[in-house]
Amino acid sequence: MGRYTDNPAAVAALVQPHQVHRDTYVDREIFDLEMKHLFANTWVFVGHDSQTPKKGDYITTQIGTQPVIMVRHSDNEIYVLLNRCPHKGTKIAIDRSGNTGKFFRCPYHAWSFKTNGCLLAIPLKKGYAETDFKEGEASHGMKPVGAVKNHRGFVFARLAQDGIGFDEYFGNSLSSLDNMVDRSPEGRLEVAGPPLRYMHNCNWKMLVDNQTDTCHPMVAHESSAGTAVRLFEQANWPEDKPKPMAMEIIAPFMSPYEFFEEMGIRTWPNGHGHTGVHHSIHSDYSMAPEYWDAMVETYGEERAGQILGESRHNTVYWPNIMIKGPIQQLRNFIPMGPDKTLVESYIYRLVGAPDILLERTAMYNRLINAPTSIVGHDDLEMYERAQEGLHVDGLEWINIQRLHVEDEDFDEEAVENGTTERQMRNQMHAWSKFMTMSMTSSQEAAE
Amino acid sequence: MTVTRDDVIDFIYDEARMLDEGRFTEWLDLWLADGFYWMPLDYKQDNPHDMTSLLHEDDFMRRLRVERLNGERTFSQKPKSRCHHVIQRPFVDEFDPEAGRFVTNTSMHYVETRLDEQFLLALTATHELNLVDGQLKIANKRVDLLNSDAAFGNIQLLP
Ligand code: FES
Ligand SMILES: [Fe+2]
Predict the structure, then answer these.
(1) Domains of chain B
(2) Strand residue runs (E) in chain B
(3) Does A358 reach chain B within 8 Å, measured CB to CB?
(4) Which of A137, A342, B79, B112 gives 20 to 30 Å between its CA and that of A266?
(5) What CATH number is given for A44-151 in this structure?
(6) Does ligand 1 have an atom closer than 6 angstroms to the CB of A87?
(7) What is the pLDDT of residue A444?
(8) Against a cut of 0.95, is the pTM above it?
(9) Are B119 and B150 in contact (CB under 8 A)?
(10) Any ligand 1 atom below 6 A from CB of A90
């Protein structure tokens, strides 16, 4: 026990209206408390159901630092189970994906479990006949998480048995996910290949913060986006030759501050929010005519126009994912330690849409989010320098005051100037809420 | 000119040396304009289109990458990285001097370093070379990392 365990008041004091204490980014005890409380009380992204299309298909992943298995059971429902044998702890699956057939079988002593986790069989079971094994937790098999929700293919889970419901937790923010799925003429997405996996030596919240940090692209990415614009100008590109797709993707990063101010930021309760309310860097992507026709066929002209008229840039689903609706991308910021984060960037195919859209998405993902990306390199450089800089003892606070106003109410949906740091404040407000809601104070306990 | 096996093999060695010495602008001139530099993400990935890759770069992207390395405000390259290739003698898998077409397969160990960090990648490079105006040029290059599905930090230069 240190300074923060069983001390919700000390944890809450780390977040002030306009600044956050650096311990939220560098302190080991805080990180452990995040895993125990924040990642248990919130709804965390697990996977997409197209990653497990057939019965018995599974993937392994993490909720916070807790290893879990997402699996399709014989009733076709998706289950999320803790990846630990109830006997002696052996991880049941360690490959990233696979098919287990009708049941999981632990490789250590061959206990087996149905794909909903229930204990199926134990070899030499008579060894437990004279014991009260049936009363113990091991007899229940692989333990499921507290709650699971499959929203239009996207599977979220809450580790805690009791807590906030899915709909209340996400509220209107689901409009971004819905828009991404609606962009398929069949209303369906399919995962396209494995994710890019990019290790970051920084706190997971630095990545989350960066998703709505609209004052960095034209500065940090000058070396890539600025150079692209210059090279393109020098190339005297013929009018009739299509612009390189890479230019369409990368050049808007150099848009001026006014562009980002006017694009707008919307925040929702519980830490969710997005950039690109009015327009975004994804607004001017060229359209494949056969795609428009397929959309009109399904939705009619008006509705198709509405769906494709949204160009929301980054939507943060607190705590740790971001989606880009217009290009069907999802980035999962998986916490590994206070200064270590695994970023997995997934792309999805719009079922029923032409291949060229997936090609653009695949290109976006590798140009911006690969370990080999000339854009990603400069982002990671900033995160890692910040992670190191935060250890300076003379200054202990991180400033998130841009366009701050007195008495902000994060329980209200709001749309503001696109360069506000309100969404970062919204996130830390939610951080405080879900961190402390299940903490008991040692003082109270003593009373 | 008549191309010998040794010419083909020397070309692969020369390219590796060029990269290790940081002569990236010169390296651009080894390429044919419509060639792709491809580094798959999935082990034995068979196409770059319906899933993403680590790299799949045309002439414009290669130039952008190299120009950025030369740039003033390239923060992740202040200070600069250095790289080092140790290569095995290339297999010449296709040798067709008549058509001016050659394919090599080369195992390499690639080391990249910056500040106090250094990492090692094991890889297989497949080069398609064409003879154009008496010179060997890279028509396509594919780099398969042995652990392409692993999580990496920054890979900033050219394996
Ligand atoms: S640890 Fe799994 S069966 Fe014994
Ligand atoms: Fe960035």
Answers:
(1) 5-145 (3.10.450.50)
(2) 31-40, 53-57, 82-87, 91-96, 101-114, 117-132, 135-145
(3) yes
(4) A342
(5) 2.102.10.10
(6) yes
(7) 58
(8) yes
(9) no
(10) yes
